[in-house]
Structure formats: C-alpha cells, structure tokens
Amino acid sequence: MKKTIMVYVVLLSIFGLYLLDYHYQNNRLNQVQEGIKGSIDEKYVMVTFQAGIEYWKSCLKGFEDAAEPLNVSVEYRGATQYDLHEQITVLEQIIARKPAGIAISAINPQELSATIDKAVDAGIPVVLFDSGAVTSKAYSFLATDNYKAGETAARKMAALLNDSGEVAVMTQPNQMNQQERTRGFLDTIAREFPRIKVAAVEDGKYDSTDSYQVALELLSKQPGIKGIFATQANQGVGIAGAVNAHQLAGRVKIIGFDTDKATLDLVKQGAISATMGQGTWKMGYWSLQFLFQVKHGLVAPGNGTEAAFSSLPPYVDTGINVITKSNVDQFYAK
C-alpha cells in the first residue's frame, strides 16, 4: 500500500512539474509573440553634461524611440555647464530616486566612477554612452571607436593637404573620447604621413567662443598651419570663425566632429572641409534597450563568462561617417 501511495506521489509530482513547466514556457512564448513590455511608471534616465547643446538631441531621440514600444518612461537630466561637480550632483540626485536604469555620458573618465559604482551597488543598471569611465562598474559602453575616428580624420586631412604641411589639433584633454580621437589622429600622422608635422595640440574647451579665441591665437603664433582637426563639434564652429577672421578661408582646412546644424551648415558652405558624424541615435536607442534587458532579467549584466544566458557586450562601436559637401544633405535632422 505504501509503495502504491509513493508511486502516486511521484506521478503527481511529475505532473505538477509538467504543468509548471508548461505554464512557464507558455508565458515565455506569449512574451515573445506579444513583445516584452514594461510599465509606464518604470523610468529610465539619460544623464549628460552641457545639457542644452544640440548634440544630445539625437541621443535622446534614440532613447525615446526605444522606450515607446517597451511601454516605459524616460527622463533627460544633465549638468547645465561643462562641470564635473554639477554632473556628480545630478547623478547623486537621480540615484536617490532609484530609477529603473541610468544611461550616462561621463564628463571625466576617472572622477565619475565612484558615483557610477554607487548606482550599480544600489541595484540600478547603468550603461555608458558617448564618453566612458573605464574604471567604473557600468555594464556596457556604447560609443564611436574614437581612436579609429581619429585615424579616419588624419587620413582625410592628409588627402586635403596632399600629404604635406603643418597641422594642429583642438581637443579637450580631460575627456576620454577626446583623448582617444587625438591619439588616433597623432599616431596615424606619425605612422603614415612623414611630410605632415603636428605643430600644436590645444585645449579648445567646450564652447565655440572659447575655441574661437584659442584658434585666433594659434593662427597668429603658427601662421604656417594648413589644417586643424577639432575633436568636438563646437570647436569646429569656433575654428571656422577664427580662420575667417584671419582671412584664411579655403587655405586652412578644417575637419570637425559631429552633426549639429551649425557644423553641417559650415560644411555645406565649404568653411569646414569635413566632419566626423557619429551614430548618436544608436547610442541612445541601444542604451535604453540594454538597460531594459538587464532590468527584466533577459541578459546578464556581466561579461557572460559564467552567465547561464546571454550577457551585455562590454563595448559597442556605434560607427562613424565622413561628411563632406557632397553628402552633407543626408545628415540634417529630419
């Protein structure tokens, strides 16, 4: 009798496990068929610096476009100025509200890491985009391969100068993406173009007015310069103004960065010879997708070496386009 009861218990247990598995698999199938949805009170936050500049608009549009089909909410916050301490304060305030996830472009590759780690330790998924913080615990970094972008800019500059002449770089020395662009440019010039000399590397700040003043002084001190590479959008605009003020339009070639309207207009006019266009919409779109997938347990946040399911890639290259007068119309915001 006891054996018969045990058999029934085992059979009922197996049947119960079957029903449980069937229910789980059926739910998974329904999720796949209907699309996994969040809730409208599930909020993801994008954090930048100099929050009002045009550059971030495309990143935010990608973030918003990803959120709509997932039925989640997004918010945009950032330091109003190019100010590390202000961005840290903004991030601290966001962490205190415990959002579903944070996508952040780091103003400084080292100094923001502790605050980013605080968010991760509090259970808030964090991904970086555009400008990274490699020592932080953020799960993934979505950005241009900035070293390759610098290489591309160097080869374009060499073509504009027929492989000969003095050039300068206008950059921001404390920001990781700017450092990589500069390094890619300098390494490529040194390696591939021996008849091109880099005469100066200047801090062009983050404002077109500042870069205008820096470029004015540079062109006065170094009249032999025939080309300037700007690693950031506002700098290209400022440099173009300084070149025009020195009456050197057409004689000093400018390569800018990014696709803000002011830069594209100057490319179209021929004042800027080329600009490096980043995949900013993709940065925002995939940042939100990554955060959502971690939040809902669809992927592991780590490197995946011990994960039972797929993990986020630690780095995603969102690509670069060389924009000139011949193709500039394709890159204006629609």
Helix/strand layout:
Elements lengths: L1 H33 L8 E7 L5 H16 L2 E7 L4 H13 L4 E4 L8 H9 L4 E4 L11 E3 L2 H15 L4 E7 L4 H17 L3 E8 L4 H14 L3 E6 L2 H13 L7 E5 L3 H9 L4 E5 L1 H16 L19 E3 L2 E4 L11
Parallel strand pairs: 1-2, 1-3, 3-4, 4-5, 5-11, 6-7, 6-8, 8-9, 9-10
Antiparallel strand pairs: 10-12
Explain briefly what this protein structure is:
With 334 residues, the chain is an alpha/beta fold. It has helices spanning 2-34, 55-70, 84-96, 113-121, 146-160, 176-192, 208-221, 233-245, 261-269, 280-295; strands at 43-49, 73-79, 101-104, 126-129, 141-143, 165-171, 196-203, 225-230, 253-257, 274-278, 315-317, 320-323.
List keywords for this structure.
Rossmann fold, 334 residues, 10 helices, alpha/beta, elongated
